[in-house]
Amino acid sequence: MNKLERLTTGLGEECGVFGAYDLDGGDVTPSIYYGLFALQHRGQESCGIAVTDTCGTRRVLSQKGLGHVDDVFDEESLEKLKGNLGVGHVRYSTAGGSCAENAQPLVINYVKGTLAIAHNGNLVNASALRRELEYTGAIFQTTVDSEVIAYHIARERLHVSTVEDAVKNAMKKIKGAYALVIGSPRKLIGVRDPLGIKPLCIGMKDNTYILASESCAITAAGAEFVRDVLPGEIVSFTKDGIASDMSMAVSANQQARCIFEYIYFARTDSTIDGVNVYHARIKAGKALAESYPVEADLVVGVPDSGLVAAKGYSEQSGIPYGMAFHKNSYVGRTFIKPKQSDRESSVKIKLNVIPEVVKGKRIVMVDDSMVRGTTCANIIRMLKKAGATEVHVRISSPPFLFPCYFGTDVPSNEHLIAHSHTPEQICQMIDADTLGYMEVEKLKNMVGGLSFCDACFTGKYPMPVPGRDISHEFEQST
């Protein structure tokens, strides 16, 4: 996704990873393909698949490129990717530019064989690690921090007896957020960062093991959800079954899952760490109704991630729930124009108000977040032009005040409307009748007893991050 597109779409998604290993020797490429389709919401910039035949030559076959899954792969290309072990990736660039070279999975050949690596997340010490590798002779082919991880695993493998031990040693060096799916000549390995910031789960279909960023991808591949990969866990799948290493795990109160998975990123039919995303968003909407009641005629949600929270608001408030928008699913995210007037037009082409639903009514409009405020203002303008007499905005996340360093593309402070304006000022700027944000204290109700990261709202990062002296906060949190 280019810089211009980010200006109009606000938040950027994360990436999605998928892996499969058929112990009976069957082709896993179709399962990876369907899994990536189910994860397309996590990244629309590029995608790729890498497979190998563990029973044959063990040569890695791969294809990747810019675009959606159905742009990069067709029936002919999938026919060429035959293998019983493979990994896949859909990408949204959080680190590294938007170019074909940065598409994943990364396939590296080294003295011990071949590794195919798919990564979701962002490292906070990638630059330092990259410099260290460069000064010892490493030559990088990409600008993504995933290649830093791959190099460290490959180098550690020279000194230990297994890939799992190499991964463990690499984990001692890398800092940040990561969910990794790694294909080696005879193993499929899943890795989740010790804080559990990025999600990863395990599925099973007959004698095929599956790893995926979200449970919805496991279902799409025709498999059954088994469990989540635990924070800090290294799980490996071989012909002998499953092996787990928890030596890198931390205590439960140190874990810091990304709260935005539940607010926005994950699909509503996914369950992450035992918490169903749909129910989490219903709870968010109910909390908004408790905190910010208002007299209105209709509750509507902004598609897609605002819809479920809007239903929750409706259930709690007793105000009827309605569908006020038609979303044009055939307009890609690349429909972006350079001028501000054209950016506003792109919102209208992607989203249209149904006048018969809103005319003459007081509307509660629920959305998942507000970054710069321009999109929200455009939608309010469209509602009022269609005849809505009032528009009361409710946001199912707290105000964005701080950037994210762990893979969510929250812009720098100067682009965050809440960083320099009060809610009252924002309400006036977007021409809303009232405005209410989710209260930070109520986020925990969304996810039960899970520990989570809310640094983009509070500035309390779960680990030291570049350019911020948070050592005192870090000591307190650990």
Automatic annotation (TrEMBL):
Pfam family for this entry, one: GATase_7
Its Enzyme Commission number?
A: 2.4.2.14
- Gene Ontology MF terms: 4 iron, 4 sulfur cluster binding; amidophosphoribosyltransferase activity; magnesium ion binding
| Names of required cofactors | [4Fe-4S] cluster; Mg(2+)
Instruction: State the UniProt keywords alphabetically.
Output: 4Fe-4S, Glutamine amidotransferase, Glycosyltransferase, Iron, Iron-sulfur, Magnesium, Metal-binding, Purine biosynthesis, Transferase
Instruction: Say yes or no: keyword Magnesium present.
Output: yes
Q: How is the cofactor bound?
A: Binds 1 [4Fe-4S] cluster per subunit.
| Family annotation (InterPro entries) | GATase_2_dom, Ntn_hydrolases_N, PRTase-like, PRTase_dom, PurF, PurF_N
Question: Which pathway is this protein engaged in?
Answer: Purine metabolism; IMP biosynthesis via de novo pathway; N(1)-(5-phospho-D-ribosyl)glycinamide from 5-phospho-alpha-D-ribose 1-diphosphate: step 1/2
Q: Which residues does UniProt mark as catalytic?
A: 15 (nucleophile)
List this protein's GO terms for biological process: 'de novo' IMP biosynthetic process; purine nucleobase biosynthetic process
Enumerate the residues binding [4Fe-4S] cluster. Answer: 258, 404, 453, 456
The keyword Transcription is annotated on this UniProt entry: no
Q: Where does Mg(2+) bind?
A: 305, 367-368
Catalytic reaction(s) noted: 5-phospho-beta-D-ribosylamine + L-glutamate + diphosphate = 5-phospho-alpha-D-ribose 1-diphosphate + L-glutamine + H2O
Q: What region holds the Glutamine amidotransferase type-2 domain?
A: 15-240
Summary of the function given for this chain in its UniProt record: Catalyzes the formation of phosphoribosylamine from phosphoribosylpyrophosphate (PRPP) and glutamine.
The UniProt entry's sequence similarity note says: In the C-terminal section; belongs to the purine/pyrimidine phosphoribosyltransferase family.
> Which NCBIfam families does the UniProt entry name for this protein?
purF
Q: What is this protein called?
A: Amidophosphoribosyltransferase
Q: Which organism is it from?
A: Muricomes intestini
Q: In the UniProt record, what gene is named as encoding this protein?
A: purF
